[in-house]
Amino acid sequence: MNHEIEIKPMMTADIPSVCTVWKQSGLVISDYEREQYELQTLMAANPTMCLIATAEKQIIGTIIGANNGRRVWIYHLAVLPDWQGKGVGSLLLSKVEEKATQQGATKLLLGVGLSNLKVVPFYEKQGYSVMNDMVLFQKMLPWKGGEHT
After folding, report:
1. CATH code, domain carrying 140
2. Which of 83, 77, 78, 63 is nearest to 2 (CA)?
3. Number of separate domains in the chain
4. Which of 8, 70, 72, 95 has the most CB atoms at less than 10 Å from its CB?
């Protein structure tokens, strides 16, 4: 494959294709309505760090960078299986790293699901390391299909 890959901001109209990329890449995601709501919120708050990779007018990869003013969290770096190993993930990650640096962030953080540990070598190759001084916790808030309570 010798196609030109373009990295550009994610738009609301991209959400259905973005969710398809996530599913085809094996990411575990919530129901579509919740993902759509959360993604629109992230895009509004971080318009320069919610990105897609395209080739031949098709979305082939995604990344979400969320700057909290101090750190940038990376979410949903996903590349379609046929495009994995061709530099798409590295392009997306480096673009978010560049934006994070421009915005004054001092650290990038990301999590890898236990069901997706095969991606650990990719992140290590990109200069990321496992944090040994923290445990991540979560708490799911109620969600009523379109109404966030």
Report:
1. 3.40.630.30
2. 83
3. 1
4. 72
For residue 34, tell me if it sits in a domain: yes
Q: Are 77 and 93 in contact (CB under 8 A)?
A: yes
| Domain enclosing residue 143, as ranges | 6-148
Encode pLDDT of 28-73 as tens digits: 888 889 899 999 999 999 999 999 999 999 999 999 999 998 899 9
**In this structure, is residue 41 part of a structural domain?**
yes
Is 1 contained in some domain?
A: no
Burial degree of 103 (CB within 10 A; 0-12, 13-18, 19+): middle
Tokens of 9: 């901001």
d(CA 128, CA 116): 16
Contact between 106 and 70 under an 8 Å Cβ cutoff? The reply is yes
